[in-house]
């Protein structure tokens, strides 16, 4: 139930997301250095990072859910239930990896969206390892951007990873981008948005299609950002319309509620990460320059208790 958007500014873009989860979950920010073994591939071989990266994780475990690397490649993972057609076997001469670890692989190895896209034929995401055993391989798709402001969606189709240019700068969940944009265009003329009666006809639901349409419209119609700070401000204003309050959606599976657990965003100019919790309105920032010891893995925990800043 997550929503991701990209907000452009003169020298780059800000990309971020809501992390909507169906039960309470521990999360924190994580920095991973160059040369760090961030996962074991499906043949049993450790993989090491070429580039520094940081982002948000669950339970202080290595797989990033969203993040940025030292070259400004940014991205997010989102649930893609029902549409993942991953391979069921490893392929020789390819990088064989779980969907859980692919996002780390991307930030660890590529400087740009172009590099990532060109290497997709060499990546195989499989639901089984070299022994034929089932492994944890969640239903994910991915959105990436960089300093060129180019945005792509990476999705599995018929056992292969494919990339699609995403001029809409939005990603939610299933269905795929083609289906999302087809329904968007049924509702409004995207080349003439001034004629759309948004107060009356903009979807108000929190299903993936409604959120996709709403996020696209609010982002496209927002006053353009001139610099990075303005882009961050625009992002947090726009994404607030997609934020799900605790208790709004109840589910029986966990006797809990689906809600936005955190909201985060990253920029391609300064390579900052910013994050706020669902219970604390304060936005926290971390940069690679803030990391004193860049040779080791480091965890950073976010204050969840409500905080304010005094005016005087």
Please explain how this structure is put together:
- The protein is an alpha+beta fold.
- The protein has a single domain (4-300), classed as 4-Layer Sandwich (Penicillin V Acylase, Chain A).
- Helix content is 19%, strand content 31%.
- It has six helices and 19 strands.
- An eight-stranded antiparallel sheet has the order 13-12-11-8-7-6-3-19, with helices on one face.
- The protein starts with a strand and ends in a 12-residue tail after the last strand.
- The mean pLDDT is 94.
What is shown here, in short?
Helices cover 19% and strands 31% of the residues.
* Low-confidence runs of at least 5 consecutive residues: none
Measure the end-to-end span: 39 Å
Helix-strand string: EEEEEEEEEHHEEEEEHHHHEEEEE
Coarse morphology = globular
Strands side by side in the biggest sheet: 13-12-11-8-7-6-3-19
Rg from alpha-carbon coordinates: 19 Å
Average per-residue pLDDT, rounded, comes to 94
List the helices and strands and how they pair.
Blueprint: E1 4-9, E2 12-21, E3 27-32, E4 37-40, E5 46-48, E6 53-58, E7 66-69, E8 74-79, E9 95-97, H1 99-109, H2 113-119, E10 123-125, E11 140-145, E12 151-157, E13 160-165, E14 170-171, H3 177-187, H4 198-201, H5 208-221, H6 228-239, E15 249-251, E16 256-267, E17 273-277, E18 284-286, E19 298-300
Parallel strand pairs: 9-10
Antiparallel strand pairs: 1-2, 1-14, 2-16, 3-6, 3-19, 4-5, 6-7, 7-8, 8-11, 11-12, 12-13, 15-16, 16-17, 17-18
């Amino acid at each position: 139930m997550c929503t991701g958007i990209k907000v452009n500014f003169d020298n780059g873009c800000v990309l971020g997301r809501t992390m909507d989860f169906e039960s309470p979950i521990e999360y924190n920010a994580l920095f991973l250095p160059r040369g760090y073994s961030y996962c074991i591939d499906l043949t049993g071989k450790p993989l090491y990072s070429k580039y520094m990266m940081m982002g948000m994780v669950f339970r202080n475990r290595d797989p990033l859910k969203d993040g940025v690397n030292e070259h400004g490649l940014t991205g997010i993972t989102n649930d893609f239930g029902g549409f993942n057609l991953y391979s069921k076997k490893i392929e020789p001469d390819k990088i064989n990896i779980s969907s859980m670890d692919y996002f780390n692989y991307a930030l660890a190895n590529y400087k740009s969206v172009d590099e990532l896209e060109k290497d997709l034929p060499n990546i195989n995401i499989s639901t089984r390892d070299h022994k034929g055993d089932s492994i944890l391989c969640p239903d994910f798709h991915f959105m990436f951007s960089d300093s060129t402001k180019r945005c792509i969606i990476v999705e599995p189709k018929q056992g292969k990873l494919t990339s699609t240019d995403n001029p809409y700068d939005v990603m939610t969940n299933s269905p795929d981008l083609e289906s999302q944009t087809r329904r968007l265009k049924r509702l409004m003329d995207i080349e003439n948005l001034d004629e759309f009666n948004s107060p009356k006809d903009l979807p108000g639901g929190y299903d993936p299609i409604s959120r996709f349409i709403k996020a696209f419209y609010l982002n496209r119609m927002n006053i353009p950002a001139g610099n990075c700070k303005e882009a961050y401000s625009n992002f947090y204003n726009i994404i607030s319309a997609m934020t799900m309050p605790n208790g709004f959606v109840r589910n029986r599976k966990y006797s809990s509620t689906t809600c936005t657990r955190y909201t985060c965003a990253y920029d391609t100019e300064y390579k900052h990460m910013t994050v706020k919790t669902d219970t604390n309105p304060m936005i926290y920032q971390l940069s690679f320059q803030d990391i004193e010891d860049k040779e080791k893995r480091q965890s950073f925990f976010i204050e969840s208790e409500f905080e304010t800043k005094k005016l005087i």
